[in-house]
Design brief:
Layout (H helix, E strand, L loop, with lengths): L2 H7 L5 H5 L3 H13 L3 H9 L11 H45 L5 H33 L3 H5 L5 H14 L3 H8 L23 H22 L4 H6 L1
């Protein structure tokens, strides 16, 4: 069924016919309605799902597992793409420096300075993400980061690669801290059990703690949301 057909038939299809949809048809139509941001159409598809009673895991366990899995996918994506961006920016800066030296180019100092900062920002982003996700894994998920991400293909490989990047570019850390300004931690409740006992005094560590606290807030918000039928399917 096309989007135009959905729009045309939305008020014409009876509940009886909707209840007779196969799972393949219903989910396909739901995705079309979601793409059109048509809440009425999505609501009718959900309301007419056939009811069934069965025994299964308690929803709190199911919800936590799904949210942790979703966060794991996000962590894997963030770490992988940021590590690649760091390598790309570093290689680009190195090529620019080599080309400029060989050609005797007199590129402006401001352009060179901006280009030289790009690898630093990517290193800072990778540092922030890695140590935030690592703390989240240990304090919230309850396992070490490689164990958490091992539920996804190549998860442990990505973690090892990121650790190698951070070690290989470790001399960037002081440079990033020189460029960053300290940020206030007054709005963070550092007394919570999952927060570190020692508060960082370096800007990069402070930004990382803010990023980690934001992760925990989003996680807790998602855990508190009601889990609808389609939340189970698309969570």
């Amino acid at each position: 069924m096309s989007k135009r057909t959905v729009e045309t038939d939305i008020d014409q299809i009876s509940d009886r016919k909707l209840r007779g949809l196969t799972p393949r048809q219903r989910i396909g139509l739901y995705l079309i309605g979601a793409a059109e941001d048509n809440e009425q159409w999505k609501g009718r598809l959900i309301d007419t799902i056939p009811r069934a009673q069965y025994n299964g895991p308690e929803l709190s366990y199911l919800k936590r597992a799904r949210v942790i899995s979703r966060f794991g996918r996000n962590a894997l994506y963030d770490l992988h793409t940021t590590a690649l961006h760091l390598q790309i920016e570093y290689d680009h800066t190195a090529r620019m420096a080599t080309t400029s030296f060989r050609s005797g180019s007199d590129d402006s100092a401001s352009d060179n300075a901006e280009a030289n900062l790009q690898p630093l920002w990517q290193y800072g982003a990778l540092y922030t993400q890695y140590f935030s996700y690592r703390r989240f894994s240990e304090q919230i998920v309850g396992v070490e980061l490689p164990v958490w991400l091992s539920i996804h293909p190549e998860g442990q490989v990505v973690v090892k690669a990121v650790e190698d990047y951070l070690e290989g570019f470790s001399w960037f850390e002081d440079l990033v801290n020189d460029e960053l300004q300290e940020t206030s931690l007054d709005n963070l409740d550092t007394s919570l059990d999952h927060m570190p006992s020692t508060i960082p005094d370096d800007p990069l560590g402070q930004y990382t703690l803010h990023w980690y606290a934001g992760l925990v807030d989003v996680f807790e918000d998602q855990l508190s949301e009601p889990l609808s039928e389609f939340g189970l399917l698309f969570g």
